[in-house]
Amino acid sequence: MVEVDFTKLMRNQTKIRNIAIAAHIDHGKTTFSDNLLAGAGMLSEETAGKQRALDFHEDEATRGITIDSASVSMLHQVKGNAYLINLIDTPGHVDFGGDVTRAMRAVDGCVILTCAVEGVMPQTETVVRQALKELVKPVLFINKVDRLIKEVKLTPEAMQAKFIKIIDHVNKLIENIAPEGYKEKWKVGVGEGTVAFGSAFHNWGLSFSYMKEKGITFKDVIDAYENDNYKELAKKAPIHEVVLNMSVEHHPNPLDAQKYRIPKIWHGDIDSELGKSLMNCDPKGPPVFNPIKIVVDKNAGEVAAGRLFSGSLKQGDEVYLYLAKRKVRIQQVSVYKGAQRIIVPEVIAGNIVGIVGLKDVVAGETVSSTEMEPFEAITHLFEPVVTKSIEATKAADLPKLIEILKQVGKEDPSIRVEINEQTGESLISGMGELHLEIIENRIKSEKGLPVKTSAPIIVYRETVGKASEVAEGRSPNKHNSFFIQIEPLEEDIYNAIKAGDVSEGRVKKKSQAVVDSLSVLGWSGDQIKDVRDIYKGNMFLDETRGEVHIGEVIEMVLDAFEMVMDQGPLAREPCTKMKVSLIDIKLHEDAIHRGPAQVYPAVREAIKGAMNKSNPGLLEPVQIHLIEMPDNFLGTATKLIGGKRGQMINVTQEGTNAAMEAKLPVAEMIGWSNDLRSATEGRGTSSLKNQLFEKLPTSLQTEIIRKIRDRKGLSENQ
Question: What is the model's pLDDT at position 35?
Answer without folding.
Answer: 80
